[in-house]
Amino acid sequence: MIKIPPWTGGIEEEYETQHFGFGSQRLKISVRQMVEQKIRNGVKDMERYLQDSLDLNDKDKTTLTHSCDKLIRLYCERAGPSLDIVDEEIERVLKIPNNVLLPEDEVQLEQVSDEEYYKLREEVVSLRTRVERGALMEALLTAEEEELSSVEKVCETAKKDMEVLDLLQKNLESTDSVKTVLSEVHFLCASVPFINKNNQNDIFGE
After folding, report:
1. DSSP labels, 153-178
2. Considering 70, 85, 106, which residue would you say is the last residue of a domain?
3. Which of 116, 123, 147, 192 has the highest CB neighbour number within 10 Å of its CB?
4. Sorted alphabetically, which Pfam families does this protein's record hold (predicted)?
């Protein structure tokens, strides 16, 4: 069979693929595979034609098949030197000179000086510092907002406590019966959920 070199890739192959859509190595492999397939198909077509045209027995058919297989191998071996010449021509045609720059690589023509590089690096560091400071300020503001919310809740609770105490004070000053005061206290405690039983006992010293 035709000897097919393995595909190894490389920078030149990659550069050719970017420019032409395929590299010289892949093209050489494809050409050799195509030539071998053409030889095989041609000889097999001839074999089928002879078997259909001639009145051959099984032994003759087997001999014909072996002979055609040998012919395929012979053609493939004899095609080797010619394919080597084809390979050289493919490499010559597809080889990209070193001074040729592909359009997508033209950006590399603009080289960055050391001074510009360090300047860009300083800008990156400055931007990173600003981002870190922004994240820190956001965290501090969030914590402060949560703390203020907690203080507001405490003040609201204290305000409700003061309102209850004011009501108790008014009732103590205006009523003559302790039972009446106690009844009203229980009513107030039932309507204000944050006053528990222990707080009621503290009020009356029980």
Report:
1. HHHHHHHHHHHHHHHHHHHHHH-S-H
2. 106
3. 192
4. Mis12 (PF05859)
> How would you class 50 by CB atoms within 10 Å of its CB: exposed for 0-12, middle for 13-18, buried for 19 or more?
middle
Could you tell me the pTM of the whole model? 0.47
Angle at 121 between CA 118 and CA 127, to 5 degrees: 145
How many domains, in total, are found in the chain? 2
φ, ψ (nearest 5 deg) of residue 183? -65, -45
97-128 pLDDT, tens per residue? 776 666 666 655 566 677 777 888 888 888 88
Cα torsion angle, 110, 114, 120, 125, sign: positive
Q: Going by C-beta distance under 8 Å and a sequence separation of 6 or more, which residues neighbour residue 16?
A: 22, 23, 24, 94, 95, 96
Residue 52 lies in a domain: yes
- With respect to residue 42, please indicate whether it lies within any of the assigned structural domains: yes
How many other C-beta atoms can be found within 10 angstroms of the C-beta atom of residue 17?
16
Q: Do 15 and 81 sit in the same domain of this protein?
A: yes
Domain that holds residue 27: 11-106
Same domain, 102 and 160: no
Helix (H) / strand (E) element for 10: namely none
